[in-house]
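Sorry to interrupt, but I need a hand with the structure work. Can you supply me with one protein entry, sequence and fold together? No commentary is needed, just the two lines. Leave the record below and I will have a look.
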Amino acid sequence: MVFSLEHDIKVTKSHQNLLPTQSVVIVHTHRFTCRSVEYNYVTLQCQLSDSDRRTTGQFVQFVDAQGVDYFESLCLKGNQACKGNRIFQTPRIGVADDKVAQYAALHYYTDKELQVTSEAACRLACEIENEFLCRSFLYKGSPQGSQYNCQLFHLDHKTLPDGPSTYLNAERPLIDNGERIGSYFENLCEKAATPSGAPSDNSLPVVFEATEDPTLNNMTRSDVNCDKTGTCYDVSVNCKDTKIAVQVRTNKPFNGRIYALGRSETCNVDVINSDLFRLDLTMNGQDCNTQSVIGVYSNTVVLQHHSVVMTKADKIYKVKCTYDMSSKNITFGMMPIR
């Protein structure tokens, strides 16, 4: 359940023949905007919330619970999709933009198609759509003849069962028919500004030994830890009780982002002209999507130069921590992928 800091109400029905669809009618409450519902088939309890996976400022963690389903409302108006400002931007999920756009064009259900004169007009059409909740749109470029060049969808990457990895695993068409891929944009709820002096997720106390790699400045551009721009990376991993801290030291100031692959929206740090920075990977929940198998926790970290677009100069590292609970020993490892 995505719990809200403002509203959460529980309604229990004692009638044993109550159908799930009958229980959902109570979302039409006038007390607040209901964005999600959790229904327990065992206790027949329905819990309403004014938050969903797209609202910000709260930690979202899903765990499997037998006999419990989570629903999100598609009956919202565009101005109800977010608690604050609603904007549209290219999703920053660690997947190439053209892959996401092509997947949307081929596999998304198109709720509405129209011809528009510009990208701004397509964006406006999605913003003001009132027949369904428009969560994303695909603009295919300037109009050509009578062809539609603007597609509106109720889907986005959060609605996909496998999340951003869906785009990576999809096969591209064997034949290129020359059709334009276009530009894909998703609804995003802007984060509220953090009060001055308030702690952030990246201010957790983590202590690294202040040791420098003496070979760092002597690395060549052909080294596996260097990219085509001449930037070389010294990556270290600190295995903590509740997180994996990945620290990066570079031979020259770095500008860009570091994030967990497939979780660039919820597990990232923006780096501005710094040669030393850190990303904390949570070990539980979906924010960083850290995987665990019998005491081995692993994740994939991306060092990206551009704030939005991935390039061949970007580095990808597989990091892991092994926890031996019997002897309490902790080991770490890091392997560059490219």
About this structure: The radius of gyration is 23 Å. Confidence is low (pLDDT under 50) at residues 13-27, 196-213. The chain has three domains: 8-73, 86-189, 219-336.
